[in-house]
Amino acid sequence: MAVIWREKEIAARSRAKELAALFKPRCRTSMTVSVCLGTSLLLIVCALALISYVKIGPSPNVMDVRARLMVPSRGHILGTDHFGRDLLARTAYGARIALQVGITSTLLAACLGVVLGGWAGYKGGLWDEGIMRAVDGLMAFPGILFAIMLVTVLGPGVFNTALAIGAANLPVFARITRGAFLTNRTALYVEAARALGAKPSHIVWRHIMPNSLGPVIVQATVTCATAILTEASLSYLGLGIQPPHASWGRMLKEAQPFMGRAPWLVLVPGLAVFITVIGLNLLGDGLRDWLDPNNS
Amino acid sequence: MQYLRQRVAALLFTLFVACAITFVVFNVIPGDPALLIMGTEADPEVLDTLRQTLGLDLPLHRQFFRWVKAVTKGDLGTSLRMGQPVAALIKERLPVTLSLAALAMVFTLGFSVIAGAYAASHRGRPIDFLIVIMSQIGLAIPHFWLGILLMLLFSLRWKLLPPGGFVQWHTDPRQAFLSLLLPAVALASHRVASLTRITRAAMLDILSQDYIRASRSRGISHTVVIYQHALKNSLVPIITVAGMQFAGLLAGSVVAEEVFALPGLGRLLLQAIGYRDLPLVQGIALFMAVMVVSVNFITDMLYLLLDPRIRYE
Fold it and tell me: Which residue is closest to B277 within chain A, CA to CA?
């Protein structure tokens, strides 16, 4: 018992040290700039998504034939589309959908990928072979293709889209986690814990996992960005979010025939995707530098 | 030689797994593919005949092996809607997608290798900063949005290039090239950005090495050091990423083809999905996966030629 206690104490102390090192202001300015910039861009998108929950201003799906293709004005800050729907309200609703799909699919991919990759990396042998060959097979399908295949058989909709994109992004997480588990499995501190009589589950959850999560977190921000891009692409192709719901990709598709007369209709949703993705990428870049132990 | 044999075995196995995944997605997940194709209100007799033509009445493992056997002979099945063999339909559309991918790759390689090398050799200067920021922007711009904006400017406003559609190469090569120009630029944007970053990082890595300093101290000119010594030695990561990008382009051009109404593989895939033509969708998906796996294999083999230090034994 006492031995386990000692070992836990050491583990806790080393983790505290890690955390302290994490938040020590040792980062270069460029790092801080990219984290700050990324976070503020994302806050804008979150605020936009919140607007869609608060019922102020015009509703995103109410059509008004008299107000078709209106230029930005006091009543409609960003103008209206070809059905007279308010562009700001629709963009806000699109932010909600994008974040929903992005976060759900990333969580799905990360959880499943970490479990599969961790299992392969920790168990090794046949498990490793089997899981990684399956992952290799999945990697033969570029992200968007696999998402398209799954959406075709699952049918469209917010959850199915998130599910399809999540499944398409799973291999990356499995690979990263497996790599981290492989290096950590034979590390000295794991051997020490084992020598002290710690159970395998304890070793995995308390020792290997916390030390393997850094790259996974960084990958999650990048994957979230990719997922939002993929959702926009799928919806553009008419396979993702279905009308009348607003989604950025869908809005671009609907606006394309009218873009000569109303260029703001194609500018706004694309800009929204751009801001979200660049925000996530900047955040990911900053986090990578922050969480990378070789970068002190 | 032994390495080659191992790689070929791995390649064949990955192809088999890709087949299995395609089969699971289209034949196991939907439960009853016939219902998915015809809809739930279809006539039971029609459903039954469809099941028989598709071989759905057999047990799953027999279906799978029958399908794999046909695939190895190059028979990807018959399209339900168009009544033609899937392989023939793919062959008809492939040139458009291939030339689009090739053109996008030419832009990507040409631009990003130069920009990346230039940024690395001017590290910390304003031009480096500018290139880094541009690549960050390029990574975040959705390529189909860029395509729409390019179309808005070059086709609708300035009327310089066709706003979509495609003229076959053999009818009018110039027109064909012009109609591929905008989609290729749009497709390349994302890849240029990432390859520039890779090139820059690889070059910075090489430039910090001793032999670069040695050749500088021997008075070899800056240009020769950068473009002959350093660039040549940072080719391996560049080729790796470029290979992956080319593989991704073959399947990733679906959206660009839709934006610019190009009659390539991607649009065929979308049409097939629209008609619920599952054999066609399945065939195209498998074909794209096979292309990706083969391109990756070729990239792997290229290392052996490029870097004499790499000898897998």
Answer: A152
For A119-141, the pLDDT digits (tens) are 999 888 899 988 988 898 888 88
Fold of B94-306: MetI-like fold (1.10.3720)
**Tens digits of residue pLDDT in A180-227:** 898 888 889 889 999 999 898 899 888 898 888 888 998 999 999 999
Residue at A296 is within a domain: no
B254 vs A134: CB contact, 8 Å cut-off? no
> Which distant-in-sequence residues (6+ apart) come within 8 Å of A223 by Cβ?
A105, A106, A109, A110, A169, A172, A173
The model carries a pTM of 0.88
Residues of A near B (CB-CB distance < 8 A)? 133-134, 136-138, 140-142, 144-145, 148-150, 152-154, 225, 229, 232-233, 236-237, 239, 252, 256, 259-260, 263, 266-267, 269-270, 273-274, 277-278, 281-282
CATH number at residue A69: 1.10.3720.10
Instruction: Name the residue facing A252 among B22, B36, B148 (closest C-beta).
Output: B148
Give me the number of domains chain A comprises: 1
